[in-house]
Amino acid sequence: MAHTEFIAAARESLEAIERARAAGRILVSDVTDADGHQYIDLVLEGGGVLGIALVGYLFALERAGLRFLSIGGTSAGSIVALLAAAAGGPASERATRLIDIVADMPIARFQDGDGDAQAFIDWLLKDSGKLFQPGISFSEIGAWVSGASKVVQVRDNFVDDLGLCPGSVFESWVTDRLHDFGVDDTAGLIARMQPGAGQLGYAGGEEGGAQRVSEARARLCLVAADLTTERKVSFPEDAPLYYAEPDGVAPAEFVRASMSVPFFFHPKRCRVPRTPQAEAAWDARIRDGRARALRYHNAWPPTECLMVDGGVMSNFPIDAFHAVGRVPTRPTLGVKLAVSPPYTAIGTPLALLSQLFNGARHCRDNDFIAGNPDFDQLVQTIDTGGQGWLDFKIARQAQADLFARGVRAAHDFLCGHEGTAGFDWPNYKEIRRALAQASQAVASRSARA
User: Fold this and answer.
1) Would 223 disulfide with which of 203, 300, 310, 444, CB 3.0-4.6 Å?
2) Could you tell me if 316 and 336 are in contact, meaning their C-beta atoms sit under 8 angstroms apart?
3) Using CA atoms, how far apart are residues 102 and 104, in angstroms rounded to an integer?
4) Beta bridge partners of residue 265, listed in sequence order
C-alpha cells in the first residue's frame, strides 16, 4: 500500500516531529481538547499534481498533535481541503485516510479528452517550448511545426467546449470518494466539520477568548474564478448565488470548478437560479445602485456563469479566515507549493505568456501578505524539487518524494531547520496584539476627527 511506502519515505522527519511533540516543544494554538490536540485553521495553495505534497504536510501536522477547524484552498489545494474536511470530525486523523486515496488517484484518467486532445496535450506539455530554446536544429523545428499542427485537430474542442477535457472523470471520482466518507451533500459536509458541544477548550488568557472558542464554527473555503462576473468565488459560502438548493449540492461540483485549468478543462457552467433568495444574494454583490438598473433591463443576474481554476484570481487565499483587530485564539497556517524566485527573467514569448498568467494569479495574494507582514510567520513553502505541476503521468516514486517533501517542510516549520527557529506562537500573538492596538488607536483618532 502507498500508505506504508509514503510514510517510509518521510520516516526521518516524522520521527523528529514525534520527538519534539513528546518533549512538549510544539505550541501553535490556544484552542485545545481533552486529548491535548491543538487546533488551527489551514489554507492550501493550488499546484496540480504537486498537491500530493500537501497531504504530506497535513499528515505531519497531525503527527505533531495538530487538528484542523476551518480549511480552504484553491485548485489542488481545494481538492485536499475538501477530502480532509470530509474524512472525519475535527479531532480525527484525517490526513492518514487521504494517503492511499491521493496516491491511488487515477490522475492520467482525469485527462479525459478525446484522442486529438490527448495528443495535443502531450505535445503541449513536452515539446511546445522547444521552439524558443537557443541552438534548435532544423529537424527539431520541423518536429515542432508538426506537433503544433495538432492545434487544428482540437479546434472544435476549444470552439465548442472552451477546453480540451470535460473533467467528468475527475468529478465522478471525487463524488465517489466523498460517498465513501458518508458525505453526499454540502449540508452533511458542513455538519461533519463542526466540533461537538464543549469539545474545544481555551488555554490562552485573552479577554473573551473562551467565549469565542465555545462559539467557534468550522468553515470551508474552496476558491474558484467566476469569469462571467469577474469575481473570486468561495464555495460553499457563495453557493446560494449559483444553486437554488445550496445545501443539497454535491461538494464535488465545487472542486470541479476550482481545478478547471483554463483551456485544459472545460469551464464549469453554473445556471443561475431565478429565486428571491438568489436574486437578493446577487444584488448584494453590487452595492452602488447598478443592480436595480441592471434588473430593470433584465441584465442582472446573468443566466449562466462560467467557472475556471480559482488560481486565476487567488491561488493562495491566505486571507480566507483572517480576523483583524484582535489577538487570535488559533492561527491560520498557510502552505505554498514550490519555491518561487523573487523575479523571473523574461527572454522568450513563451516566458512572457507564462509570467502574464503567473502575475495575475499571484498579485492579489501577494498584496495581502505584503499588507499583513505578520503572515510571513504563518506561511511555509514546500520545495517540490522541480516536479511539473501538470504531469498527469507522475510516477509512484515521484509521488512518494513529494509526500516526503511536504512532511519535511512541516517539520521545518514546527521545529526549525539549520539554525532557524520554528513557529513561535507566543511571539506571534504579541505581534497581533501590537497590530490590534495600533488599529484601535487609528480608529479612535478617526472617530474624534
Assistant:
1) 310
2) yes
3) 5
4) 165, 262
